[in-house]
What we know:
With 218 residues, this protein is an alpha+beta fold. Helix content is 26%, strand content 17%. The protein has helices spanning 116-123, 126-131, 146-150, 159-196; strands spanning 22-25, 30-32, 36-37, 43-46, 53-56, 69-71, 77-79, 89-91, 100-101, 107-110, 153-156. The strands form 4 sheets. It has a 4-stranded antiparallel beta sheet with strand order 2-10-7-8. Strands 3-6-9 form a 3-stranded antiparallel beta sheet, with no helix packed on it. A two-stranded antiparallel sheet has the order 1-11. It is extended. It starts with 21 loop residues before the first strand and ends in a 22-residue tail after the last helix.
Amino acid sequence: LYMSEKIMVPNLRFKCFDGEWEKKKIDNILYENNTLINDDGDRLTVKLNLNGVFKRELKTIEKIGATRQYVRSEGDFIYGKQNIHKGCFGIIPKHLDNFVSSSDIPSFKFNKGFSNFFFYYKFSNFKFYDSLKYKMVGTSSKRYHVDIFLNTFLFFPSLEEQEKISHFFSKMDDLIDLNERKLEILKKTKEYYLSVMFSKDGESVPQLRFKGFDGEWE
């Protein structure tokens, strides 16, 4: 999915698709969701390293109404201006619809003909989002501003191919999540066995041992 300015097609592609991808400016793909809200609502945040969008708890030192907040919607692409180059972006999930964030975490709606998850996965290539650090501006705290973002050019295939690619990576993410949960269960299982298969201080036998073995440990 990551292509240079000179290459019009990726190195690997589903067989049912051909033809060159079109070069498009991001402001033709999406537009900023800048609906201001008068009263603060539940806030959201974006985690680093492609770890997604989550509800953010208010800090005790924060004052409601001190910072302008904007309504965010399910399916929006959202990013953190200060950390987009560290994988701080994502697609807002359904359960965070109508949550809010400040202008430092802008969000964007998609025009017809473009897949939000294709856009997300395209950004998810480390070579791409890491390179954004060179486009950030500022003195003490650099930011990837909206005008820079919207004036970036990317290559896009047909909507059908976008959705095919999105589905492929979505299934891969599901598999990763499943295996991560299995790994967590295995870790907890190992921790349990470590606690019961070794004798504790003052005990001559462990709580659990393999069949066929008896007698006290020396």
